[in-house]
Amino acid sequence: MSDTAALHPSVDRAEMRPGHFTAGWRIVARKELADHLLSARFAVLIAVLGVAAAAAVFSASGGIRDVAPAAQGIPALFLKLFTVTTDPVPFPFVTFIGFLAPLLGIMFGFDAVNGERAQGTLPRLVAQPIHRDEVIIGKFVAGLTVIGLMLAALTLFVSGIGIYRLGIVPTAAEVSRLAVWLVLAIIYVGLWLALATAASVFFVRAASSALVSVGTWLVLALFGNFLFRALAGLFASADNQIANLTAQVAVSRISPITLFTEASSLLLDPTQRATGLVLSTQVDRALVSNLSLGQSLLVVSPQMIGLLAMTAVVFAAAFVAFMRQEVRA
Fold it and tell me: 168 by DSSP, 3-state: which?
């Protein structure tokens, strides 16, 4: 039996003939997906994220319920579950996803390639008829699928708690906004998966790739604002406060965390009309109205395209590096 058939016993030899449309990356993706779903890593992550998400939504729903009489008529009230918080939980669900969800991508990608090298299975994995490009594509697709399933489950979990606690059923417009935001979150975490996969290609040891990936996340999440202020000072005078703040906002958008936060706040709040620095004169001249989903998408399209482009560039770097590496038995 070939190595490919060993990966997936149900694959017939005829399916693996050269030129057959059944791609090897699908076989790798199915195998990796099964391994991820049955791993202790998956169980621990979904349990930790589920507890944190439940704490955030219980806190938010309690605060909304306390002010329910005054909250009648507020647009997209159901979406407030994802964007507001009250004591004792200091963060809303969206902030929690922006800060902790990158760990999903890192945990499912930091040993994608060097883990196979350490076990000595990479030479057999890249043997014909499965080519090495199909290996890295299959691993990335499997990781992204698991991330999508986990984020979708968390979103449904939070929505279910909100419906139970508040008795509010989301409207079609709110469901549409949540669906678009879920796609945004998958792209965002997919960027961190691509980064971790690239680290697993460039570094021989899994510990090194995990350290680089987690270190990048921590620097951007904890020290990003300080770094962006320092960089903004190089491009704008400290005496001109507006110019300095504008430069700081522009520089901060090199961070995927900033792009995700800005896009999330607009998608989940139809009353918000702009991202970045908004002057009081601009607020006074703005018409008081809510944005439709299409209008919100127009505003956040630069952030979404930026995240997608970052993901593509980082994964392309991992792909090219892996294709050029020598694999020895």
Answer: coil
Q: How many CB atoms lie within 10 A of CB 214?
A: 18
| Tokens coding 24 | 């090897």
* Domain presence at residue 329: no
pLDDT: is 255 or 72 the higher one? 255
How many domains does the chain fold into? 1
315 vs 28, residue with greater confidence: 315
Other C-beta atoms closer than 10 Å to the C-beta of 314 total 21
pTM: 0.85
Task: Establish if 164 belongs to a structural domain.
Answer: yes
Would you call the peptide bond into 88 cis, given omega within 30 degrees of 0 as the criterion?
A: yes
Kindly report, residue by residue over 245-260, the tens digit of the pLDDT. Answer: 777 788 888 999 999 9
The residue range of the domain holding 276 is 3-324
Report yes or no on 256 lying in a domain.
Answer: yes
Residue 27 lies in a domain: yes
Contacts 24+ apart (CB under 8 A), 12-16: 16/129
